[in-house]
Design goal:
Blueprint: H1 3-6, H2 24-28, E1 35-38, E2 42-46, E3 55-60, H3 75-91, E4 97-102, E5 112-116, H4 127-134, E6 138-140, H5 141-151, H6 159-166, H7 182-189
Antiparallel strand pairs: 1-2, 2-3, 3-5, 4-5, 4-6
């Protein structure tokens, strides 16, 4: 299919290469339909493929690729992430929200997930989706902030640990139920809805 048919045009009418999917957050940061809140340094957007009833992404305007590029100079930026997380918790008092970062993010540009623990969503489809939010692969916001303040950075996880976390057996994040597969888990999650 031609680029022209895909509708990829520059302002001058000439075609340009489409962005790689991993850069998709950059477009969402500018999309008024996605934006929930903006500050001078940060934007909060709705996740396009939410893995729970409530799922936001908190991103800096500064071009920081991942948590592994954070240093002590980013402490105040991360603290502002925390303030926005607190605002979202206040807005969604009826939900239990968590904030954290994926140890190996699939999307470029640093982003913090703020997600409800219900994990009810048609976009939650695979074991990898589940394990990326319910194992140590999901690094809590407070742990990242502490690592930056105390150690000056975050240590990368090994490929072996990454594989191990993604292949962890399914277990409900709200009780000890161990489903045989994702459909069974998704059905079970509905029993926790109040």
């Amino acid at each position: 299919m031609s680029k022209r048919k895909l509708g990829i045009m520059t302002g001058s009418g000439t075609t340009k290469q489409p962005r790689h999917w991993s850069l998709g957050l950059l477009g969402s940061m500018e999309d008024p339909e996605s934006i929930v809140k903006k500050t001078e340094r940060i934007v909060v957007i709705r996740d396009k493929y939410p893995k729970a009833k409530i799922h936001y992404l908190v991103l800096p305007y500064e071009d920081i690729n991942s948590i592994y590029k954070l240093t002590e100079k980013h402490t105040s930026l991360l603290e502002e992430f925390g303030k926005l997380y607190e605002e979202l918790k206040e807005k969604h008092k009826e939900s239990n929200l968590r904030a954290g970062f994926h140890a190996v993010p699939s999307m470029q540009r640093l982003h913090m997930h703020v997600i409800s623990t219900d994990m009810i969503s048609p976009c939650l489809k695979t074991k990898v989706h589940w394990n990326s939010f319910t194992t140590r692969f999901f690094i809590p916001y407070q742990d990242v902030l502490k690592g930056i303040k105390e150690d000056g950075g975050i240590k990368k996880i090994s490929n072996e640990l990454h594989k191990s976390l993604m292949s962890t057996e399914l277990i409900c994040n709200q009780c000890n139920f161990k489903p045989k597969n994702m459909p069974q888990l998704k059905e079970h999650l509905l029993t926790h809805v109040k």
